[in-house]
Amino acid sequence: MAQSKNSRRVGATEARAKVVNVRISPQKLNLVAQSIRGLPVQKALNELEFSRKRIAKDVRKALYSAVSNAENNHNLDIDSLVVAEAFVGKNLVMKRFAARARGRASRIEKPFSEITIVVRELGEAA
Prior knowledge:
The protein is 29% helix and 36% strand. It has 3 helices and 3 strands, in the order βαααββ. The termini are far apart.
């Protein structure tokens, strides 16, 4: 038997893209996500293009993916899209050890994050 189709996780005028295992701390990633929340898509892409943060390149790819999902999968107009949500979550943490003086070791934590971007089509009234 086939599995029943899952319902959409976002609204009818929305599309989303999620990137997991981004090798940066959630706190640093949230600074970039915060800079694009609520902006029109073209303005957000420009913001990410000229950002000096290393992770802005990966966030830009995720935003492109959300826009492509909106256009191809949900038939939304890409000129009227706005970044409705951009939220960050924790993911796994790699634990490593660094050698220290007198035979000791200290722990180094290398955190991973995940980012979800939701774009929404604004209607003619807005």
